[in-house]
Design goal:
This protein is an alpha/beta fold. It is about 45% helix and about 10% strand. A hairpin with an 8-residue loop joins strand 12 and strand 13.
């Protein structure tokens, strides 16, 4: 049976699919990146842009999903996953779940509570969170033990350690059913009071001076037939960005101060530009740990590791349908055929000859140009790359300010200067000038996802439709050609940008700013001498500029505050990728804002990171307000 007509259309499978389906499509590769520290006592914050995989990770550790993993342990889909869960100590091969994962969401209810004048008046928020944690814990416990209904809760008794003496607002009932009934009644009472007072603060609303549910979860012992069960616990709170800032900050602060002896996972969208997650006196690595999901793939091998994870995700989805056979990668051709390259050979040679024509009589480049000209007899992609690489090197040498002797440069020097970044610049110039495909192949596709699972699935859905259409049309080749892949991916990139004004609070300004950054990066990328090879894909704000941005209206006025909101939203929504920039002898530290890699495809830019240009906040304010205007293109050699 097919999992879906298009198995990649279900973006948020972590919330909508059954536990069994979730277990079968869940990729275990992400577990390999989770630090063992995340399973130790303390507060652990997982953050990413929307679609980064936060909720997927949390749901994987709920009792119902763990039990689904355990039941399906002998299937091919679970061959990789199951041993990793056993290694993490959350599943036992014989007995099933060994972790009581309690997951609640902040997506609804909490922000409806009356706003308070001070942090100490957030009592109703604490009371609502406490009763939900208690209720979800007891229901999760039933699933953990394999109960099919709440009737079996009568067999669970509760004991309390000495630490429970400090509990003031959660009753010390000895029966799991009694405590569940209290939690349900408490939640109903809170909402009844809210409805009756139409949003006005009521003195009769249940209130708590502190978050007690963590202390309760740490102090209780659950017994079944006199035997203690579920001693290994994990509290997971999702969608923290849906809380009001005072609620969120207060929750993180109190949980950190309590220093729980079991892990608490908090999941939220990325907060940027001055929004702090640390409570007063807390220290990263001791009291609180942060995990940026995009940064889990950081490092020299990051994109290769993400590609492995992405391919696993794609193939698991592919296996849930019957329309197309084979793996996803087998349907994406990653090389151009000689017949596809041939139409670009003459235009490429002509473009090269036109560019170097002013230098043909210069003895300095005689050997370089002779070697390039000799290669034109071979109609290959490698020949075209060689011509454009030579063209860039000539432009670089001709642009040097210092005087040099007109001695012939040896041809071998080209090989010494032919680096991967230079080759990348030649590739993107071939794409820009000739239309030779650039955005194709599995690895390129994975890079375009910007380490974001939802973006990966969004593009995969489009490619899958193309694969099915090719199959229906009876194409001789079962693969999508590089030309077909590029068209589909660039169409997706165009739609991604076009939706910005409709889907974001400051969408019109964000769109104008992104288009400006894209245009500016293009201008710096396609200079004849490719000084920032393979190209520029981001802008940098120095620390001084960042300080101006974070000072509110003091340094930059109302427009500065508006720019801060626009940039914050772009980063939080994965439209801009923020990376730190360390100080050097020539410059101070700062922050680099790279374009989302899908947007790079829209603007015809390379996908590698590393190329950026310093700008000022005033530049960005001007671009956001009026748009960027291109400078006159520099002529070759000048």
């Amino acid at each position: 049976m097919a999992y879906n007509v298009n198995p990649f259309l279900e973006r948020r499978s972590e919330r909508t699919t059954s536990d069994q389906e979730f277990a079968l499509v869940f990729s275990p590769k992400i577990l390999e990146k989770l630090s063992d520290e995340a399973f130790k006592g303390g507060v652990h914050i997982f953050r990413s842009a929307p679609g980064g995989g936060k909720t997927t990770i949390l749901r994987a550790f709920t009792p119902s999903v763990l039990r689904s993993f355990w039941r399906a342990k002998g299937t091919n889909e679970l061959r990789e996953s199951f041993p990793l869960f056993v290694e993490k100590g959350v599943l036992d091969d014989q007995e099933g779940p060994r972790l009581l994962g309690v997951m609640i969401s902040c997506a609804s209810g909490y922000a409806d509570l009356p706003a308070s004048a001070s942090a100490i008046e957030e009592g109703p928020f604490r009371a609502l969170l406490d009763c939900r944690v208690v209720l979800r814990t007891i229901r999760s416990l039933g699933t953990y033990l394999g109960f099919s209904s709440d009737e079996a809760l009568d067999s669970i008794q509760i004991e309390y350690s000495d630490d429970a003496r400090d509990l003031k607002n959660i009753p010390a009932h000895g029966s799991a059913r009694e405590l569940a009934s209290w939690a349900e009644a408490q939640e109903k009472r809170i909402y009844a009071e809210l409805d009756s007072f139409a949003g006005r603060t009521s003195q009769t609303l249940p209130s708590s001076p502190r978050f007690e549910s963590v202390l309760w979860l740490q102090a209780v012992r659950f017994l079944q037939d006199g035997k203690q069960v579920a001693t290994n616990r994990l509290l997971m709170i999702d969608d923290l960005q849906r809380l009001r800032r005072k609620q969120r900050d207060g929750l993180i602060d109190e949980l950190t101060v309590q220093r729980p002896d079991f892990p608490i996972w908090l999941a939220m969208r990325t907060l940027v530009l001055g929004d702090s997650l640390l409570s007063q006196g807390a220290r990263i690595g001791r009291d609180i740990n942060e995990y940026a999901l995009e940064e889990l793939w950081a490092g020299p091998k990051g994109i290769h590791q993400f590609s492995s994870f992405a391919q696993n995700v794609l193939d698991r989805r592919m296996n849930r349908q019957v329309t197309v056979t084979g793996s996803f990668s087998q349907r994406l051709r990653d090389q151009l055929d000689p017949d596809e390259i041939r139409p670009f050979v003459k235009p490429g040679i002509d473009a090269y000859r036109t560019a170097i024509q002013p230098h043909e009589g210069n003895v300095r480049y005689r050997e370089w140009l002779a070697r390039a000209e000799k290669s034109t007899s071979e109609p290959t992609l490698e020949m075209l790359l060689g011509l454009f690489t030579t063209r860039i090197l000539v432009a670089r040498d001709a642009a040097k300010k210092q005087l040099s002797l007109d001695l012939a440069l040896p041809a071998e020097e080209i090989d010494e200067k032919d680096t991967s970044s230079l080759r990348g610049a030649a590739e993107i110039q071939l794409h820009e000038e000739l239309g030779l495909p650039y955005y194709y192949g599995l690895e390129t596709f994975c890079v375009m996802a910007s380490y974001n699972v939802e973006e990966l699935l969004s593009m995969a859905a489009v490619l899958y439709d193309g694969i099915v259409a090719s199959q229906v049309l009876g194409k001789r080749s079962p693969e999508l050609s590089p030309f077909e892949q590029e068209k589909l991916l660039r169409d997706t990139a165009e739609r991604r940008l076009s939706f910005v004004p409709k889907q974001h609070t400051e969408g019109t300004r964000a769109h104008r700013l992104l288009v400006s950054i894209g245009g500016y990066c293009r201008e710096r990328t396609f200079l004849p001498n490719a000084p920032y090879a393979p190209g520029v894909t981001g802008i940098r704000l120095s620390q001084s500029e960042m300080n101006k941005l974070q000072s509110g209206t003091k340094a930059l006025g109302e427009q500065g505050e508006l720019l801060r909101r626009v940039l914050s939203e772009c980063i939080a929504e994965n439209l801009l990728l923020q990376r730190p920039s360390t100080a050097s002898t020539a410059r101070e530290a700062g922050s680099i804002l790279y374009l989302n890699r899908t947007l790079c495809a829209h603007f015809g830019l390379p996908l590698q990171m590393g190329g950026w240009q310093d700008v000022s906040c005033m530049d960005l304010i001007d671009w956001m307000s009026r748009g960027w205007k291109p400078q006159k293109r520099l002529a070759m050699g000048g």
